[in-house]
Design a protein that fits this description.
Organism: Thauera terpenica 58Eu
GO biological process, one term: regulation of DNA-templated transcription
Strand content: 15-25%
Protein name: HTH luxR-type domain-containing protein
InterPro entries: Sig_transdc_resp-reg_C-effctor (IPR016032), Tscrpt_reg_LuxR_C (IPR000792), WH-like_DNA-bd_sf (IPR036388)
GO molecular function: DNA binding
Length: 393
């Protein structure tokens, strides 16, 4: 194809506002949708659909990640005939996207890059774009750094008019906000991954964590904490907060939580104190530690954790991965099964009964585990297994 080098020069915000033909209220709503879109399950679906209406487009796509050998394409899509067309568009984007090496953060029309006659007569258009009812294109590569943070693509069918200054202006008004919103979403995604990872690790270690707000009400509890509280044995949920079964211990627990909440409000982090909570069933006591959640400079007190209560049931079993034990210590499946039972607190005889093997078989297996882990006694074996990475996998 014969290409053109003419690229529309950027213009000031006031001129963009004038060319867009939109009122202040409409622009304000669009910008609001850009930022609220960071919280949507599929981000920015509402703003892209609204853009499609305003631009009289048949497709609007925000490409958040281009495909490579390790990661699939990631496209947020608004358009006709969903989800059939969306699937075709997403899987074939690298083939159908006619934009390459665009000037950053600037809307560009396809006819500025490619001669219109060559475009329509070329196999590129006839094979990939005509079947999707795409005739006209505008697009932008957005963001800082060596690679764009995302790519905005807007298209119209042959029956529509060409894109003009109005459509370019509307998109250009939103571009800087999309850059910021994509960065915000990336930060939220990183925080979510970290939270999921640490929560899973604490669950595998059977460590319960309860987040309390400044009113001492429970905001959130991880799986291990929920399992402890559901038993209502020593600790339970009363009126949305934590309560100990025995009055004296309940008074002490409330006092610790109050001190933690007050310390957090003064930006004083750390474990305020700990205590032991008796259980009505007579089982071993629960361990409780209370930590202040420090108030950051700009945090909102009414919607943030003010204190963390850490719960530990000494009778709870540390979860371990069979596969990780096999990989770390080159154990057989039978040996890994035995090691998991020992980590759960079983004796060799109890483990043999649970695994339906003879005691002699179990003893032969534990000797093999000793040799592979470099220990000679069961207490040493448990120390190696429990302090290693197997419970965290």
């Amino acid at each position: 194809m014969r290409t053109r080098s003419r690229i529309t020069e950027p213009c000031g915000r006031d001129l963009l506002f004038e060319r867009s033909g939109l009122g202040f209220v409409e622009v304000d709503k669009l910008i609001g949708l850009v930022y609220s879109g960071t919280q949507e399950t599929v981000p920015w679906t509402r703003v892209l659909e609204r853009m499609r209406e305003l631009l009289d487009a048949n497709y609007v796509a925000l490409i958040l990640r281009v495909p490579n050998s390790e990661q699939p394409l990631q496209v947020v899509f608004a358009g006709e005939a969903q989800p059939e067309r969306a699937a075709v568009f997403s899987t074939s984007l690298t083939t159908i996207d006619p934009f390459f090496n665009l000037p950053r953060d600037r809307m560009v029309m396809l006819e500025e890059l490619v001669d219109d006659e060559d475009w329509l007569q070329g196999s590129y258009y006839r094979e990939f774009h005509a079947p999707l009812n795409i005739r006209y294109y505008i697009g932008a590569d957005i963001g800082m750094g060596p690679e764009p943070s995302c790519r905005l693509r807007v298209s119209r069918p042959p029956s529509a008019a060409r894109f003009g200054e109005r459509e370019l202006a509307i998109c250009s008004l939103l571009l800087p906000h999309l850059v910021i919103a994509v960065q915000l979403r990336a930060g939220l995604d990183i925080a979510a991954v970290e939270s999921h990872f640490y929560a899973g690790m604490l669950d595998r270690l059977s460590v319960g964590v309860v987040f309390l707000d400044k009113e001492k009400r429970i905001l959130k509890a991880n799986r291990a904490a929920s399992a402890i509280l559901e038993q209502r044995d020593g600790l339970s949920i009363v009126n949305g907060g934590l309560s100990a079964a025995f009055p004296a211990e309940n008074h002490e627990l409330r006092s610790l939580i109050e001190r933690a909440v007050s310390a957090g409000g003064q930006s004083q982090p750390g474990v305020v104190s700990g205590m032991s909570v008796s259980r009505s069933s007579g089982r071993s006591n629960l361990g409780v530690a209370v930590r202040a959640a420090p108030l950051t400079e700009w945090s909102e007190p009414s919607s943030r954790p003010a204190a963390l209560v850490i719960l530990r049931d000494s009778e709870a079993h540390v979860l371990a991965s069979h596969d990780e034990l096999k990989q770390l210590y080159r154990l057989t499946t039978a040996e890994a099964n035995l090691a998991v039972q020992l980590m759960a607190g079983c004796t060799v005889e109890e483990a043999a009964q649970r695994l339906n093997v003879t005691r002699n078989t179990a003893r032969c297996q534990i000797r093999a585990v000793f040799a592979k882990t470099g220990v000679t006694r069961q207490t040493e074996l448990l120390r190696v297994l429990l302090s290693g990475v197997a419970p965290l996998a």
